[in-house]
């Protein structure tokens, strides 16, 4: 053994980030295996590596007992005290048994074992690094694809992006740079396996944290997210700072912040609404951009009946019921949307003055078509009035009217 080994261990520690003690333990374990295999020895042995002196020695270890049953593993008290009088029953006696040609044989046999231990140590470091990054966003490069999965390089590891976690409107090509959300990290026989997503609501949350300083520093809080990846999403935001507009902070000047996030998600529209602990206000906000005339709440059933102007019924429902469905997911309340005409015929609108005082909905300022800086978040096509209306239970998969 020479100083070359010490230099090699130091280089591995610097390049791979693996502690030299870990490598020394791996080498000692490999040499013990090599000794037993090549010299047909079954006794308990220990290998001592002295990196400073560049020496390697093998010691047999025997237990001190009164009656010897196996001479390879045990030694009598009398024989032990001949070596050193201080030995007592239960002690361990070590004796050097280093073979003359052990260096050559050990080098050949230990190479594969040491390599395996180094690889395992590297995998352990990678696992520890990425397990701490679960539920976080990372940059990756598309490396390859198969029939179902996309493989994204994250630097030290290759992550799997399953087809179910891909945005269906996106196309990927090798060397494309994308942001992904780490959903799970597993330890496998082949090393750590990282699973990522482009459809998880957590990706939208992290993108807003990166883009909006007020969210990153905690001034504005994201309360809930409802997302249909690649098409449209809604998020609710809240702040206790009266001087900060939570919605305006997320939208940015001329919609720059939300536009940047939309571009990262392949044009996905993002509605930003203000959260409220009052379900009347929250549900009305969540159905934006439609105007809401009234919201009636059933606390026991955790459901709401929403009245909208006749000409905005289809806008409130959205294409294939998307706007109402996302609003229900965002608020956690069932939403039954009725037109003003149907509500009057059923006698649920207008309500008595006492009821209206108990539940009042503030109408949005200005016309709903005037979206201003919210254009990207609230863009929609002109709707046509719906002559016949139906009730929509948004937690059930029911057919809704097309625009």
Automatic annotation (TrEMBL):
<comment type="subunit">
    <text>Monomer. Binds directly to the core enzyme of the DNA-dependent RNA polymerase and to nascent RNA.</text>
</comment>
<comment type="function">
    <text>Participates in both transcription termination and antitermination.</text>
</comment>
<dbReference type="InterPro" id="IPR003029">
    <property type="entry name" value="S1_domain"/>
</dbReference>
<feature type="domain" description="S1 motif">
    <location>
        <begin position="135"/>
        <end position="199"/>
    </location>
</feature>
<keyword id="KW-0806">Transcription termination</keyword>
<dbReference type="Pfam" id="PF08529">
    <property type="entry name" value="NusA_N"/>
</dbReference>
<dbReference type="GO" id="GO:0005829">
    <property type="term" value="C:cytosol"/>
</dbReference>
<feature type="region of interest" description="Disordered">
    <location>
        <begin position="382"/>
        <end position="403"/>
    </location>
</feature>
<dbReference type="InterPro" id="IPR009019">
    <property type="entry name" value="KH_sf_prok-type"/>
</dbReference>
<dbReference type="Pfam" id="PF00575">
    <property type="entry name" value="S1"/>
</dbReference>
<dbReference type="InterPro" id="IPR004087">
    <property type="entry name" value="KH_dom"/>
</dbReference>
<dbReference type="GO" id="GO:0003723">
    <property type="term" value="F:RNA binding"/>
</dbReference>
<dbReference type="GO" id="GO:0006353">
    <property type="term" value="P:DNA-templated transcription termination"/>
</dbReference>
<dbReference type="GO" id="GO:0003700">
    <property type="term" value="F:DNA-binding transcription factor activity"/>
</dbReference>
<keyword id="KW-0963">Cytoplasm</keyword>
<comment type="similarity">
    <text>Belongs to the NusA family.</text>
</comment>
<dbReference type="InterPro" id="IPR013735">
    <property type="entry name" value="TF_NusA_N"/>
</dbReference>
<dbReference type="InterPro" id="IPR012340">
    <property type="entry name" value="NA-bd_OB-fold"/>
</dbReference>
<dbReference type="InterPro" id="IPR036555">
    <property type="entry name" value="NusA_N_sf"/>
</dbReference>
<keyword id="KW-0805">Transcription regulation</keyword>
<dbReference type="InterPro" id="IPR010213">
    <property type="entry name" value="TF_NusA"/>
</dbReference>
<dbReference type="GO" id="GO:0031564">
    <property type="term" value="P:transcription antitermination"/>
</dbReference>
<keyword id="KW-0694">RNA-binding</keyword>
<dbReference type="InterPro" id="IPR058582">
    <property type="entry name" value="KH_NusA_2nd"/>
</dbReference>
<protein>
    <recommendedName>
        <fullName>Transcription termination/antitermination protein NusA</fullName>
    </recommendedName>
</protein>
<dbReference type="InterPro" id="IPR025249">
    <property type="entry name" value="TF_NusA_KH_1st"/>
</dbReference>
<dbReference type="Pfam" id="PF26594">
    <property type="entry name" value="KH_NusA_2nd"/>
</dbReference>
<keyword id="KW-0889">Transcription antitermination</keyword>
<keyword id="KW-0804">Transcription</keyword>
<dbReference type="Pfam" id="PF13184">
    <property type="entry name" value="KH_NusA_1st"/>
</dbReference>
<dbReference type="InterPro" id="IPR030842">
    <property type="entry name" value="TF_NusA_bacterial"/>
</dbReference>
<dbReference type="InterPro" id="IPR015946">
    <property type="entry name" value="KH_dom-like_a/b"/>
</dbReference>
């Amino acid at each position: 053994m020479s100083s070359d080994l010490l230099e090699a261990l130091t280089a591995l520690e610097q390049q791979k980030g693996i502690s030299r003690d870990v490598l020394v333990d791996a080498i000692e374990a490999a040499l013990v295996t090599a000794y037993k295999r090549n010299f047909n020895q079954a006794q308990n042995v220990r290998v001592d590596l002295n990196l400073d002196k560049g020496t390697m020695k093998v010691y047999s270890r025997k237990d001190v007992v009164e009656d010897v049953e196996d001479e390879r593993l045990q030694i009598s008290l009398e024989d032990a005290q001949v070596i050193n009088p201080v030995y007592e029953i239960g002690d361990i006696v070590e004796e050097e048994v280093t073979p003359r040609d052990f260096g050559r044989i050990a080098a050949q046999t230990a190479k594969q074992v040491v390599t395996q231990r180094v690889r395992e140590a590297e995998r352990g470091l990678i696992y520890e690094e990425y397990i701490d990054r679960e539920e976080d966003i990372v940059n990756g490069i598309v490396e390859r694809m198969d029939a179902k999965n996309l493989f994204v390089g994250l630097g030290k590891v290759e992550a799997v992006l399953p087809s179910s976690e891909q945005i269906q409107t996106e196309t990927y090509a090798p060397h494309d740079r994308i942001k992904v959300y780490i959903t799970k990290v597993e330890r496998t026989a082949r090393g750590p396996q990282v699973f990522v997503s482009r459809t998880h609501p957590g990706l939208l949350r992290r993108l807003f944290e990166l883009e909006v300083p007020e969210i990153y520093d905690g001034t504005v809080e994201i309360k809930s997210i409802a997302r249909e990846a690649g098409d449209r999403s809604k998020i609710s935001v809240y702040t206790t700072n009266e001087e900060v507009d939570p919605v305006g902070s997320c939208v940015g000047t001329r919609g720059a912040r939300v536009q940047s996030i939309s571009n990262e998600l392949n044009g996905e529209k993002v509605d930003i609404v203000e959260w409220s602990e009052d379900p009347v206000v929250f549900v009305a906000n969540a159905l934006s951009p439609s105007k809401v005339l009234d919201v009636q709440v059933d606390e026991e059933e955790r459901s709401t009946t929403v009245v909208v102007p006749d000409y905005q019924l289809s806008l409130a429902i959205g294409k294939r019921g998307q706007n109402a469905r996302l609003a229900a997911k965002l608020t956690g309340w069932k939403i039954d949307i009725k037109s003003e005409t149907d509500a009057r015929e059923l006698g649920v609108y207008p309500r008595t003055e006492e009821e209206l005082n108990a539940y009042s909905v503030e109408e949005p300022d200005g016309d709903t078509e005037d979206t201003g800086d919210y254009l990207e978040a609230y863009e929609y096509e002109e709707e046509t009035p719906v002559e016949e209306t139906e009730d929509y239970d948004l937690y059930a998969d029911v057919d809704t009217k097309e625009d």
